[in-house]
Write a structure and sequence with these properties.
By secondary structure, this protein is an alpha/beta fold. The protein contains twelve helices and eight strands. A hairpin with a 2-residue loop joins β1 and β2.
Length: 293
């Protein structure tokens, strides 16, 4: 009897230990592969870096997110042999602004980061507001960008008369006052994936606060700035994006000298979150295009 009780206790202890291990594994998300703070001349930045000798891919998150928004991309690109680097923009996620943080254009922080990591060339991916800074950096340091991906982004471009007319005609009254998940996630995704919506909202809670000062651009994003780019560019849009409709994206993309346009079906503004497989495959195909095996 004592032996049986002892065996039972051991069994329960093992089960408890197994449950703990499973809980740890369950909470060890892909958003924290090798995350840590990096001291830069512009301040301390939280950065996820998977390491390795693979070709680097740098991911810039939207205003409503942080580096965790890429948790469906990071393991995919690591499995494909890439090194993935995803910073939390200053003021978002874990990159809380320190009292001594220097207010500089985000492109300068990105440049300090890639210098720190000794990256010479890399693919740069920016989603939504991240696209603002991806364009700003690519225009400033084109020699470092092998390929550029701009997803679901209006880029903050100073548009022409055609663009202004589009924005006026497509405007939805009261849209800015809607909850973020309604503005950025498609009705189909919200209806079919409540767990995904909850996780997205967890990440959004640690994005850039609404009342935060917007990060700085080095120079205004203009159509002339777009036209001057010479690296290959992949432009991605969601076909039910209400925040930045695909039509608005096409209007600025036409100014690019070299680009591919990918429209992902049944995806809202958070295109990489809602349709990760389609997004990942499109980006991977673009990065590998023109490469020799």
């Amino acid at each position: 009897m004592h032996r049986s009780m002892g065996s039972l206790r051991c069994g329960l202890a093992s089960l408890a230990q197994l449950a703990f291990i499973l809980a740890v594994v369950a909470t060890a998300r892909a958003d924290d592969p090798r995350g840590g703070y990096i001291e830069l001349p512009t301040g301390k930045l939280w950065v996820l870096d998977t390491g390795g000798a693979g070709e680097p891919v740098v991911l810039l998150h939207p205003r409503t997110g942080n580096s965790a928004i890429w948790e469906n991309q990071i393991p995919y690109f690591v499995a494909a042999g890439f090194r993935v680097i995803a910073p939390d923009k200053p003021g978002a996620g874990r990159s809380a602004l320190a009292p001594d943080w220097k207010q500089v254009p985000y492109a300068e922080t990105i440049d300090a980061l890639v210098d720190h990591l000794s990256l010479t060339q890399f693919t740069l991916v920016g989603a939504a507001e991240g696209g603002y800074f991806a364009l700003d950096y690519a225009a400033w340091k084109p020699g470092r960008i092998q390929k550029l991906v701009l997803a679901s982004s209006g880029l903050g471009v100073q548009v022409d008369e055609e663009g202004r007319a589009f924005r006026h005609n497509a405007a939805i009254p009261g849209f800015s006052k809607l909850p973020p998940e309604v503005r950025e996630l498609s009705p189909t995704y919200r209806g079919l994936n409540p767990a995904g919506v909850r996780r997205w909202l967890e990440i959004e809670e640690h994005g850039t606060p609404e009342n935060a000062v917007r990060a700085l651009l080095r120079t205004p994003n203009t159509v002339e700035k777009l036209a001057a780019l010479r690296m290959p560019v992949l432009v991605i849009a969601g076909d039910v994006d209400l925040t930045t409709p695909s039509g608005a994206i096409r209007l600025w993309a036409k100014h690019l000298a070299h680009h591919e346009f990918k429209l992902i079906t049944e995806a809202g503004h958070a295109v990489m979150w809602e349709q990760p497989q389609a997004f990942n495959e499109a980006v991977l195909s673009f990065i590998k295009s023109g490469q020799t095996p």
